[in-house]
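Worked example
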Amino acid sequence: MVNRIWCETVIPILWKNPWHYKLNYCNKNYLFIIISLYLSDDVKEFLSRQGIQLSSMSHKSLSFDYLSFCKSINVNIIENIISIGSSLSYNQFLLQQEFYNIMMKTCPELKYLDIISIKHQIFYFPEAKVHLDSLCELKCDTSIDPSYFFGLARICQKIQNLIIINTDPRENDGIVKLIEFQKNLKFFEWKDNFDEDNFVEDPYEEIFFALAKKTDNLNHLILYFQFIEYYEHNYLKNVLPKFSKLKTLKIDNLLFSCEEILKTSVYRDLEIFNTDYISIETIISMIENSGGHLKEVLLRYYCYEGEDDFNEDSLILIRTIYEKCPLVEYLSLVFSTSDDHFAEFEKLLKTCQNLRSLLLIISNIYQVETYNKKLENGEKLLNILIRSAPINLREIRFFDNFKFSLKNLEEFLEKWKGRPALSILTSDPVYRREDYVKLINKYKEVGVINDFSEKNIYF
């Protein structure tokens, strides 16, 4: 539609992974047509005899060898595309088999494979060994029969990124074997996604024992647990310290019992740490034991409301951040509104010049502040941001324990002019008021504000 040179440039890019676009693939006939055109005449005739509707364009030739650029297979999307040809289960099974067969023959090397909901043991196709040998990313789920993973483990031993959705909380020996066979596993993500009633046995132990043998290469560990607290999981506490080369550590639903292990674990290469409900004491220890490379410290803190040491611990936390991780870009921070805390916070802003996004959690555990006091604290914060906010700061998130008067907010936005547009997210519904909305829209129009909204302010 543009010109030949543009087309020759963009087609290899689009077809490298044609499944990851935000499309309703069931309504996109052209993908179905293009793959159908690769089928041999004998196969087309066989499928037609089964009542499968192939495109009337099947006699035309292709302008490009599209599948020769493809390095990815997404089983779920291919299933959606195949429904265009027939609504009958058996016919769809036949189409899937022929589509996978042609892709195994035509795609020169497959790098990315998403086999969630797979029904075909694709590693049995004649060309599978040659084309799957280069696989570097696999996404799968635990409902898949172990035999599929046994077959993949025999062929695919160079997987670098492994993403597992835990939909069936039973031990899967095939996944364990697949992990054991990998020679260069760098990224591992595990995400629980099952009903609590189905939790009948522990699916984690053998998985983590297999992972513990991959510590020489593993750089990124992402774990989203649902019901892990049902078991003591001593093995998780045993293996976490072994991942000494991690650059990313994300744990959702962190076990309290793991905190003591994290306090003493040393991750010198850590760049991203993200977890929910962690104590200030633990994160201080982790930052001190890191190598100064942290870029994301995104946390939900607990154990500060009512804690006698909160004021001192939160001061130490701020100091530790600007002393030990000056490269931080994304940060969630809890502190009191004392003058000392504001002073240390300003030092943090001046030191951490790469800071892009900031979540502020304020806690005053010794007193209930009046509305006017909250406005005063809000004014202090805005003045500090104007004086010391790094030029890279693009986003601020805060709870309703910070209050900004209409006058102070306008003064702040006026002084922010000339800097990159700012997104402000809050949990406070006061900004729905007509006078606030009018002010916010005014500064949106002149490019001072990119977004100002009330939503989930956690990262």
User: Anything to note?
Assistant: The two ends are 41 Å apart (CA to CA). Residues 136-252 form one domain. The CA atoms of residues 39 and 102 lie 7 Å apart. The longest strand covers residues 272-279.
